[in-house]
Amino acid sequence: MSIEETNKLRAKLGLAPLDVGTEKKPDDGTPQFLNSDENFVHVPAKNISEIRRTEQIQEKLKTMREKRELMEKLREAQPLSAGDEVNTMSWVEKMRLKEKERRAAEEREKLLSEMDEEFGVSQLVQAKLSASNEYASRDLEGLKVEHKADRLIESGPIILTLKDKGVLDEDADDVLVNVNIIDDEKAEKNRENKRKTAGLGGILQDEDDDVIMGLRAKGVLEKYDAEIDGPKKQEFVLGSGGSYSSEHELAMRRLQQELQSSAHSANDYEVRVASEYFSAAEMEQFRKRKRKTKVQRRKLTADDLISASFNEPAVNGAGGRRDHGSRRRGAPTAEEEPEEGEVVHDSGANRVDRAGKTEEEEDRKPSTTAALTTDTGLNPAIAALLEARTVSEDVDDRGKTF
């Protein structure tokens, strides 16, 4: 194909033509390029029928190639009858050998059966096989019994069967139960529920053995555990030989009895009929205690002191001292000792004030009022007023007030 034909084909395909080296250059030496807007070539449309025919040809070529490869593999494989020559005589010989082996097997079987009948070997083997296949008590080891041991002991000999399991509980362990005991347990549960519904259940529910013996702590909302997790079931596991040792059960029962005996019960107290009236012994317990009553004294004012000074005698004794009295009176004698809570009156000649001083000690103190009366000759009412002021100052010095 020439360059011109190639360029024509490339133009149909939308490709740039090949450079043949005959491009004309301007006088200045710069190459001259064609304008794509003026010099362009239309790309021919795709022929769909031609594309389909090409795909069919490629598919046929692929099929022929695979067929050729398969035939080459078959030529390389060696046929089965390539090594041995199969003919009628060889086939007959094979059939004779098979018949001979069959007859020899029948003779051996007949001889062995005669020996078994003579020595009893077959019976021994059969007895051994039957003994090994028989279900005995040794096969019960590890099985659970979903009842209390006390119920089984009290009921005597009973028949235990395997408990029904759900379709999805294939991995669950086998459990032995008795139908009659299950019915009894359901009846007891129903009676207890009726008793609780009628209000006879009490405030405190019966605690289980683990809580009594301190093996676990009692939950706050333990009464809802049976509804969430299901009822708690008593069970035990069979030991070797299908037996169960009740020593552990007896030890736990003895411990429970000891704990219950140490606890207080309502039966420990004497039951008696309630009475509407208290007895003499009960009234002694309700004896009212005597309380100390605080002695409240009225505060003296200046008017009280002035009026008291006019009512008292003028002179007491030869010294001219007046008896103005003491602030506190002494305590009464042993015969007149007041009971607890009794109000003490300010009467008597030998009484003690709050500071612990008697009337005699109070009289030994120099009287400012007497001095003022004798020295200055003041009015007795004014002297009494001055005495009251002096007394109040003495009380303030001792830190006590009336």
Measured between the Cα atoms of the first and last residue, the distance is: 149 Å
Find the count of extended strands (DSSP E, 2+ residues).
4
Give unreliable regions as ranges: 314-320, 331-376, 395-402
Q: What fraction, in percent, of the residue positions are helical?
A: 40-55%
Counting H and I runs of at least 4 residues, what is the number of helices?
A: 14
What class, by secondary structure content?
A: mainly alpha
Approximate strand percentage:
under 5%
The helix/strand series, from N terminus to C terminus, equals: HHHHEHEEHHHEHHHHHH
Main sheet: strand order:
2-3-1-4
Question: Quick one: biggest sheet?
Answer: 4 strands, mixed
Radius of gyration: 66 Å
On the 0 to 100 scale, the average pLDDT is: 69
Shape: flat
Biased composition (Polar residues): 367-377
Keywords: Coiled coil, mRNA processing, mRNA splicing, Nucleus
Main location: nucleus
GO biological process, one term: mRNA cis splicing, via spliceosome
Descriptive notes:
This protein has helices at 3-12, 48-76, 88-119, 121-133, 149-155, 179-197, 209-212, 225-229, 247-262, 280-285, 302-311, 359-364, 368-376, 380-397, and strands at residues 144-145, 161-162, 175-177, 236-237. The longest helix has 32 residues, at 88-119. 46% of the residues lie in helices and 2% in strands. Mean pLDDT is 69; it is low at 314-320, 331-376 and 395-402. With 402 residues, it is mainly α. α13 runs antiparallel to α14. Among the domains are: 1-19 and 39-67, no CATH class; 139-164 and 172-264, no CATH class; 302-330 and 351-397, no CATH class. The chain has 14 helices and 4 strands. The chain has a 4-stranded mixed beta sheet with strand order 2-3-1-4. Pfam families: HIND, SART-1. Its main location: nucleus. Residues 285-378 are annotated as: Disordered. Residues 367-377 have a biased composition (Polar residues). Residues 287-299 have a biased composition (Basic residues).
